[in-house]
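Feature request disguised as a bug report, sorry. It would help if multi-protein outputs had a clear separator. Right now it looks like this:
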Amino acid sequence: MSIVVYEHADDEVPVGVATGDTMFIGDVGRPDLLASIGFTREELADKLYDSLHDKLMTLPDATAVWPAHGAGSACGKNLSTELTSTIGEQKQSNYALRAPDKQTFMELVTEGQPPAPGYFVYDAILNRKDRELLDEDAMPPAMTYEDMLAALDAGAMLIDGRLPEEFAQGHLRQAINVGLEGRYAEFAGSVIPSDVDIVLVMEPGMELEGKNRLARIGFDRVIGYLEEPYKVMFQHRDDVEVASRLTAKAFAERSAEVPDIQLVDVRNPGEVAGGKIGDAIEIPVGQLPDRVGELDVTKPTVVYCAGGYRSSVAASLLRQRGFVDVSDILGGYGAWTETVQSA
């Protein structure tokens, strides 16, 4: 839905338009996100094309464009870092708006899209229901180590929101690392089932933010956070693991020494199209929970992404699923490319 804004009630020329998920700066909405709940990609692409051409693009060129998302969102593949634009600018520069017909439009906007995070359909269903307002001031309950263990035994998942570098130096066994400073909600929603309780491990003082950002995507089953996590890890060192992170050079050396390494590329298809390392198995991180069975749990495994954030998510998920020898590549594909080029 888009909302046209006028400076005064009796004006005929709009000041701007809040384009929601229909038009972004540099991109448009995705017609493939609701395909699993009764809509075909073709039907949604047809409606999206009509909304863009029969409504938004008929507005004056000077009309400001205020989109709902920007760069980093999984709602598109080419979202700009710019916060505002105009209808005229988008007509000239937005690749999707320049498509000559609906068929070409659909092919353009669906090609190379990142896989839809698993929580998208869950959220689409929630958006059709009445829900209580989120209390963003309500802290999740503090939990002792024993409380946490009881929750995990009952089926809860442990999410460590610290930086990958901090996580690698020491974390509680079973924890999945989804760094709060990255695309936290998106990737947490991609690897955590929507129907499980969640216990948080955060840098002290960040627990409320961790809870709220998950709740904003409908993941409101945070039952608590581990109190004094560093003290707990010091007192229970037998339950603490370190994570292996390899430099690109160290990965190359290990590959020469261990010929049967299982290499996993967790980037999106559009990124992989620009090149990958050897014969890496391609599984986008958001699909990894459902595709773990395609990997050999007994093999030494190395995971990489573009820069090292998603690979920490993926590697920690594999450890939680029983993989014993798992590493990820520091700096990801970018670091590996630089290493190869400088060799």
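(second protein starts here, but nothing in the output says so)
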Amino acid sequence: MNDVFEKIKRGTSEIISIEEFKKKLFLERKLRIKFGVDPTVSDLHLGHTVVINKLKTFQDLGHQVIFLIGDFTARIGDPSGRSETRPIITEEQIQNNIKTYTDQVFKILNKEKTEIAYNNSWLGTLGVNGLFNLVAKSTVSQMLARDDFEKRYKEDRSISVTEFLYPLLQAYDSVVLKADVELGGTDQKFNLLLGRQIQRDYGIKEPQVVITMPLLEGIDGVRKMSKSYNNYIALNDTPRNMFGKIMSISDKLMYKYYNLLTQDDLNLVKAMHPKEAKIVLAGKIVEKYHGKEVGLKEKKEFNKVFAKKGTPENIEKYLICNMTLSKVSELLFKSGMVSSKNEARRFIEQGGVKINSQKVERDLIVDFSKPFILQAGKRRFKKIVKK
């Protein structure tokens, strides 16, 4: 039992409470382990997998894991860690985002052993009386005691009433699903603890144990991984982008990625040269989500392009449909290699743009008469071809 507990405990931030959790582990039944994600964006990213990997640990130990898709709560949006109210997304956006969620999560979880739930199936029929009954179990002062709400209130930033509803609705999910354990990031602690309270209010004598996981910083090494901050590594990223993004993180952050995204012995990792350890990590992550052969291929490509300063194979083509005069900065932007023309100009000024391996010294007019390889930075390549 101690071995089981230590396996679950690895990488966690907090278990509330340890005594209750150990007691649940001795129950002669499968525990119901809940983790919910709102489909507010189309891609799951490595930040999500920190918790999903912990779900997989429970699944491997024989427990029932529940992957909850918040198709109702996505209409509000989780206020955790937010400094302002989230914009409301449409039902069409929610349904489009849902389409790929199960495919992505089953890259980690066993499909046959995973319970998929959608909270619209009970929250959508809760009704006014059910909602009144739920909101009566909490107070405004309790909500304002939450760090992010308190900060926004003091700074006179708006807090929508629906944002107060969000943690209550998440808590009600735990009542319906009869969750024994709920997992989430450290920014979810308020919501998860409220789930314990609401379960008690609805007559559940042994409420869920809360397990929080650290937030994974994005590739900028500063803020948590999020599509909003454009610092994420999506599970649906191309192998090339996934490998390159991992290679761009700092050595310090790399060890955190190892701890939260793999089961590798950190002592062995630290015995390696940091660059080699990072290459191994990138290969492991690509292999996990794209297959072993692809992982090996990307490792070879990286060595070819960066160690030997070569050019990658199978470079994506960008077709020029007309011969309108265009500057390098405009081509970089239109081909999707950079997010803005300002970013393109910065690349050029810093000597990070090449045409056929020759450094571009200034923002010149491009000659499209012959195909050429356009490079931005160390890992962005496009083959420019006249249609």
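Even a blank line would do. Unrelated, but nice: The mean pLDDT is 89.
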